Amino acid sequence: PDSYVHHRHLGVRFHCSRVPQVCEYISSFLKVAVPSIISGVGDSITLVILEEEVGGNYQSDTVGEQQRIGTTKTLERFVIQFQMDSAIYGEDTKPK
Questions:
Q1: Which residue in 8, 15, 45, 62 has a CA-CA distance of 20 to 30 Å to 78?
Q2: More confident residue, 89 or 7
Q3: How far from each other are the two terminal CA atoms of the chain, in whole angstroms?
């Protein structure tokens, strides 16, 4: 089954995950990211989609804990950059 469902909110169509943990992760991330972007602390958000090796192998380290070893491949990478000065103040009224 498809792990995403189509939704519409405020007239905008988008895909939403059916997995509650994914929704919670994205929500908690946005609670930190959005205020950082608006306040000017950050100027971009990067989304990297990875694929891990299925059925990973484990290796014991010197402390006795197991570490997963395997390969991870980058499937997609998106960088969304924001210019909040232009969005908030406009080009003509930007503070100096």
A1: 8
A2: 7
A3: 53
